């Protein structure tokens, strides 16, 4: 389901078509009175009065429309359902506009002798006051009819049009109201018990719509009925008016009410001429979504009328049409388009509107930010939707090493880790990690110390992690593939004094000692088995660095109790047990590995370590899954899409029972080929949304074929102990079906950012709904009425690309760090929305005295490979909007590297292409969608692992040998690759 505006933008539509579409909306033209008549009323007198009025209409230039009083017998009693339906049907029945009919009178005679007089008028000719005066004349004894007067229709001035078009008002309500996408009209009614002035309703509507809209409130069409100042019946255009219900500058309740009063008194008329001007001349995308009618109060004070009812409209004139009574019980009616909005969505809209209006009316809140959107009872309902109670509350001693010790004691001889042909049992892992902990303690490692780990995936990584936490210290994982400058920054920012590496080398960091696992094992005293004293579950277990918008990666401190709570929350629901075999597929610097390692070892499973090159080669990975009988697989969607392509040729092992997605948004549609080959009952697919700051996971959602067919964005409900809130930019809790920012509370919230107090305060804040801390994610989401969260992307410049969390602002700051770059912009693009492999990072720079190669070298020195932009485009200046912001629409298309056909800057430039090189060039061109030279670098051309899999598949179809990812990563041009394969 698309999260964009559910109302079509009319910017390119012709004015006539636009007006015609608005005119065709049910209920646009007519309004009606229904009067219960006294038994003494003479029908002949009523018919005669109508005839006199018909003559007057004709003299005023209007076609004859009321030649007689239409009498309709209804055999049922006036209180029956049949009678009530007939009454409403007659009030709602459209006028015959083709014949120029502007008025219709009908008398309903019921079986019990009662009668209803129904008068329907054309709103373009008769407003409520005029229609009501006609009713009064029909039942008065006055022989002289009221005069018929023509109202002068005044259009907007040029200044009014300019002011409206240049204002910040949005033309359409961008809110997915969960409609059935099928035609239908819904209606809701509420008795508010308040006497409310129109300005209170309008200001309240502006505030509510701005929250639902996620930006300044959209334009609202208002119709404020008013009594005529003259004695006659005024005919003429009485259309809706456009209003901006909430000024962007309003900060206080009094200012908001003043603005609403001004809008009600001076709003522009919503007429055909205005539509034509705005759309035709100013190219204004006008599709008003919400209308509000303020009718006059009516009472049966006419002789001969026992009761009277006024129907301002019979259905939704606009997608949402509100009718607000001014006095008495404060009756509020809502007509809505069921194709766009569900009844629950509209119920929440009305509840919010009434609650906000009551606060504005009483002026209980002086500032708009203090106005609550939901009443207390409703807040409780919404909080309960996003709350999942924990299955187990970790105790003070529930730490990673103590939980592991319990598992090890229960199954000491079970295999804990396998790496190639080597295996470690639980007892061996426990023993070796204890020895290493003793060696670390002998080097001065104490509780609360940070110890770096910069190791490739292996058993040594897990041994080192377990040893560090046994010391009561905090492990800081780093990826050896990261640039030296980034490793150096991480170690320096964390204040590391000791780092464990593969070979004892690491970029220089003052005061830091580098060692290896073998060296520590040689130092270990077998007689000393270390256990830290006084360590608690609330102590930090690890610190993982994530991309930072300021250009500085930030360390996230996560305590032991969070990891234990995560395992306890998911063990039963995912049926995790010692029978499972997991893979360690991801780098230890990626928080998905926290789940892979401890999710496996703390439930007694076997952890299969996947070598880096195997993780990059889906064919080899499929073979490993089969060879090791893997049952639990954790994958980013991008990695699994590669596995699906391989699975089409050789199916993945039947041992696989559970696939868990995480790390990036899932496009469920891409799973359809998997469901074509695998029964849902054989292998369960679970999508889990989460972030480093909330301990890997927050929600879970089983993904089945029906979700894939629907392209579902659902990420499910919170796992036990985790809580979800969706709030607006003022941290007001939003009702279901309204998008906002996602906040996470409960058992998974991390401790803080390391030495980033300012950032910690803005992201980790007190939970207003329970004791504890909640985390502000920066993700946009929508809580549905069943408690399921839909993930709608990011609110900032953070993206997730092939599982990596990337701050585009960090890349921009690195670009600006180059001496020759004066300005820079970084964007994420996915040209083919149906193909995740097309996702890429595009960079733009203003740099007069720099080469692309020089800037790329600068980027590669400071950024991991996955953060280096695929394209780099030079521009003279950065295009700006009138507000001084980057105008991305005016940036040129990203510049691709110039293709190298036969010639090349290499020494082999003069060599002709061999037959195999020509075939390879054709294959690369087909996959990458551009001309390719034999000496062009695959990754500089925008290549990635997903596209590499497709190249390998295309090679197989040509009868060529399978392409190993190792070959492609070490031989990145066609010429080098062909030479290696030969």
TrEMBL record:
Pfam families: AMP-binding, AMP-binding_C, PP-binding. One of its GO terms (biological process) is secondary metabolite biosynthetic process. GO terms for molecular function: phosphopantetheine binding. Its cofactor is pantetheine 4'-phosphate. Residues 911-982 form the Carrier domain. It comes from the Bacteria. SUPFAM superfamilies: Acetyl-CoA synthetase-like (SSF56801), ACP-like (SSF47336). The keyword Phosphoprotein applies. GO terms for cellular component: cytoplasm. Keywords: Phosphopantetheine, Phosphoprotein. InterPro entries: AA_adenyl_dom, ACP-like_sf, AMP-bd_C, AMP-bd_C_sf, AMP-binding_CS, AMP-dep_synth/lig_dom, ANL_N_sf, PP-bd_ACP. This is Amino acid adenylation domain-containing protein.
């Amino acid at each position: 389901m698309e999260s964009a505006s559910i109302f079509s933008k009319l910017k390119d539509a012709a004015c006539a078509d636009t007006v015609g579409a608005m005119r065709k909306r049910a209920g646009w033209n007519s309004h009606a009175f229904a009067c219960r008549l006294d038994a003494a009323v003479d029908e002949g007198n009523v018919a005669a009065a109508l005839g006199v009025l018909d003559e007057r209409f004709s003299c005023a230039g209007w076609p004859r429309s009321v030649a007689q009083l239409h009498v309709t017998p209804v055999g049922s009693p006036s209180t029956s359902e049949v009678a009530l339906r007939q009454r409403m049907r007659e009030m709602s029945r459209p006028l015959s506009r083709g014949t120029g009919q502007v008025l219709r009178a009908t008398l309903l005679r019921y079986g019990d002798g009662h009668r209803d007089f129904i008068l329907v008028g054309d709103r373009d000719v008769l407003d409520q006051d005029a229609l009501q005066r006609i009713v009064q004349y029909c039942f008065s004894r006055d022989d002289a009819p009221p005069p018929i007067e023509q109202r002068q229709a005044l259009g907007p001035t040029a200044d009014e049009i300019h002011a409206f078009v240049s204002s910040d008002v949005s033309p359409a309500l961008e809110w997915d109201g969960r409609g059935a996408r099928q035609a239908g009209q819904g209606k809701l009614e509420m008795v508010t018990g308040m006497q409310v002035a129109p300005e209170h309703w309008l200001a309240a509507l502006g505030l509510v719509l701005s929250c639902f809209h996620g930006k300044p409130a959209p334009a609202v069409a208002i119709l404020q009925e008013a009594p005529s100042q003259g004695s006659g019946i005024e005919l003429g255009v009485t259309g809706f008016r456009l209003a901006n219900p909430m000024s962007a500058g309003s900060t206080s309740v009094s200012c908001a009410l003043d603005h609403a009063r001004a809008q009600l008194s001076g709003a522009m008329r919503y007429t055909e001429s205005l539509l034509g001007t705005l759309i035709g001349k100013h190219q204004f995308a006008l599709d008003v979504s919400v209308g509000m009618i303020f009718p006059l109060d009516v009472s049966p004070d006419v002789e001969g009328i026992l009761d009277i009812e006024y129907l301002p409209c019979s259905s939704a004139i606009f997608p949402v049409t509100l009718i607000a009574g001014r006095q008495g019980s404060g009756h509020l009616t809502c007509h809505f388009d069921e194709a766009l909005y569900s009844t629950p969505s509209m119920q929440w809209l009305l509840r919010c509107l009434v609650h906000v209006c009551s606060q504005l009316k009483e002026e209980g809140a002086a500032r708009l930010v203090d106005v609550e959107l939901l009443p207390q009872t409703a807040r409780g309902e919404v909080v309960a939707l996003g709350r999942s109670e924990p299955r187990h509350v970790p105790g003070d001693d529930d730490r990673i090493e103590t939980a592991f010790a319990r598992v090890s004691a229960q199954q000491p001889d079970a295999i804990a880790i396998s790496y190639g042909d080597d295996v470690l049992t639980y007892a061996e892992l426990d023993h070796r990690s204890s020895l290493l902990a003793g060696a670390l303690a002998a080097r001065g490692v104490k509780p609360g110390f940070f110890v770096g780990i910069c190791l490739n995936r292996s058993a040594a990584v897990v041994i080192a992690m377990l040893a560090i936490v046994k010391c009561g210290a905090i492990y800081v994982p780093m990826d050896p593939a990261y640039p030296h400058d980034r490793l150096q920054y991480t170690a320096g920012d964390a204040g590391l004094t000791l780092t464990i590496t593969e070979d004892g080398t690491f970029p220089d960091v003052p005061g830091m000692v580098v060692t290896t696992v073998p060296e520590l094992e040689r130092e270990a005293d077998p007689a000393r088995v270390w256990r830290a004293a006084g360590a608690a579950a609330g102590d930090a277990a690890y610190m993982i660095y994530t991309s930072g918008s300021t250009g500085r990666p930030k360390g996230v401190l996560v305590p032991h109790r969070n990891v234990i709570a995560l395992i306890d929350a998911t063990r039963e629901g995912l049926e995790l047990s010692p029978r499972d075999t997991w893979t360690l597929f991801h780098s230890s610097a990626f928080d998905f590995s926290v789940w892979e390692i401890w999710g496996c070892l703390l439930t007694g499973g076997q952890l299969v370590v996947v070598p880096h090159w195997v993780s990059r080669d889906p064919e080899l990975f499929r073979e490993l899954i089969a060879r090791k009988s893997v049952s639990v697989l954790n994958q980013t969607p991008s990695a699994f899409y590669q596995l699906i392509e391989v699975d089409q040729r050789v199916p993945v092992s039947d041992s696989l029972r559970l696939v868990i997605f995480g790390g990036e948004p899932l496009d469920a549609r891409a799973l359809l080929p998997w469901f074509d080959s695998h029964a849902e009952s054989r292998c369960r697919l679970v999508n889990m949304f989460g972030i480093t700051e909330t301990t890997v996971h927050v929600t879970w959602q089983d993904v089945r074929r029906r979700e894939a067919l629907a392209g579902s964005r659902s990420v499910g409900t919170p796992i036990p102990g985790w809580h979800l809130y969706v709030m607006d930019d003022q941290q007001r809790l939003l009702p279901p079906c309204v998008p906002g920012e996602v906040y996470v509370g409960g058992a998974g919230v991390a401790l803080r950012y390391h030495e980033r107090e300012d950032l910690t305060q803005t992201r980790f804040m007190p939970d207003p709904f329970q004791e504890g801390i909640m985390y502000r994610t920066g993700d946009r989401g929508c809580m549905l009425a069943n408690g399921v969260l839909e993930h709608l992307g990011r609110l900032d410049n953070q993206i997730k690309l092939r599982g990596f969390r990337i701050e585009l602002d960090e890349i921009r700051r690195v670009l600006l760090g180059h001496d020759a770059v004066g300005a820079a912009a970084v964007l994420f693009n996915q040209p083919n929305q149906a193909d995740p492999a097309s996702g890429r990072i595009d960079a733009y720079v203003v740099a007069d005295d720099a080469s692309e190669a020089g800037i790329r070298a600068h980027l590669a020195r400071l950024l991991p490979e996955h953060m280096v932009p695929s394209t780099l485009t030079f521009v003279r200046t950065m295009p700006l909007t009138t507000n001084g912001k980057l105008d991305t629409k005016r940036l040129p298309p990203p510049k691709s590297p110039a293709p190298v056909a036969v010639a090349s800057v290499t020494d082999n430039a003069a060599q002709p292409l061999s037959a195999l090189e020509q075939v390879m060039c054709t294959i690369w061109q087909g996959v990458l969608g551009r001309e390719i030279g034999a000496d062009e670098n695959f990754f500089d051309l925008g290549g990635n692992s997903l596209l590499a899999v497709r190249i390998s598949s295309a090679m197989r179809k040509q009868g060529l040998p399978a392409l190993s990812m190792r070959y492609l990563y070490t031989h990145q041009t066609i010429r080098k690759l062909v030479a290696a394969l030969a």
